[in-house]
Amino acid sequence: MRFNKFYIYLLIAVMATALGCKSKKQADPKSLLVSENGRFLTTGDGKPFFWLGDTAWLLFSRLTREEADTYLEDRKQKGFNVIQVMLLHDVPSRNVYLDSSLVRANVAKPAITPGSNYKKADEYDYWDNVDYIIDKAAEKGLYMALVPVWGTNVKEKKVKEPEAKVYAEFLAKRYRDRWNIIWLDGGDIKGSDGLNVWTTIGKTLRANDPNHLITFHPRGRTASSQWFHNAAWSDFNMIQSGHRRYDQDTSKNEKLHYGEDNWKYIEADYKLTPVKPTIDGEPSYEDIPQGLHDTTQPRWTAADVRRYGYWSVFAGAFGYTYGHNSVMQMYKVTDKKPAYGPKDQWITALNAAGATQMKYLKDLMLSRSYFDRVPDQSVIAGQNGEKYDRLLATRGADYVMVYTYTGRNINLNMGKIEGENVKASWFNPRDGKTTLIGAINNKGTHTFDPPGEVINGNDWVLILDKI
């Protein structure tokens, strides 16, 4: 019997399907994935995910359940969608209920109460309480970016490679079925300090939890890409631009001296191959002393955290993590030894100006086409500017955005998007309001003069939209 070739190929395809040829697993709509172009994150249903993180390092150890509920609801209402938190600040750690995290300070032996119930106060343990807060965050649509163990513990040899492997496997198996998990290996540490431990944790998490994103939270003024850009377990890069002023960033032992120019770290990551998303996971915190340790120094303000946010995102980052001195350590007036001289209690600091303004950045970036956005300094005519005068530009197919921190004039090369004319507007990062400038001829160069005087903190975003 002779068959037409078409029917032979059709028969082979049908048989292959019947025999179970593997197809790509359908992602959970809430899961986080790296976008196809490698620059951004998406949810499992293909929607853009702009990471707007808040730093709550000591959430699990310092707050009661009722306080944690209050904190999470506040961050949800303010537009945050990722909470960065430590599982173990110390080895061992204890929570506010005096539950210990480990047996005999061994990360390979989490202190688990058999048959415990996290709904009953007299039955739950440290890890039940962690479960409760993670699940409460999930109810509010918040992702939890979990640091397994803070870096100083590894540097001080409290965590070694064999124990780290057991601990990472415990974490992966306990939380791999929760949709709202992101893993932050490391924790304010250079990858070279305990490299084998960090590599073991990363590989073990990936082997036992293939469906959650993993990165490394590095030391100040470093980037995870310095050690782990090519690591198969690392899905995206993270920088910690740190808390120093320009004149404080002078250490001879540090490789990079970018000062406050966090956009330079993002720019460097953006050029790497293979392509991976990148983000500033710890810029200067609002109300923390400049340089951290001397509490007599000036403090970083809402204007500063806005600047770090817009600079890094316009330079190519897929999101931004905000932090506040009081909130990151959940400071209370009863604390005997708070770090870095916090002024307000955490419950008050929730409403700091910077925290209320971060949502405007997220809303702006989600208001236009998303996956085609690129950094593009070529739209700037003349000098880009140095330090606070720096202009940062980003664009999509049908729009251009330029950020100025000082309100200086913006000279633009027109014609970057199509049309005889373009619609120009001013976006205010302080209140999220947009003011129409009008239609502008889309040829040659054009100078735009932002509202107000030229002064630090009079920041604006110039937006050009295709008509």
UniProtKB/TrEMBL annotation:
Residues in the signal sequence: none
Gene3D superfamilies with a match to the protein in the record: Glycosidases
Every Putative collagen-binding domain range: 374-465
One Pfam short name: Collagen_bind_2
Domain Apiosidase-like catalytic: 35-371
Matching SUPFAM superfamilies: (Trans)glycosidases
Name by which UniProt lists this protein: Putative collagen-binding domain of a collagenase
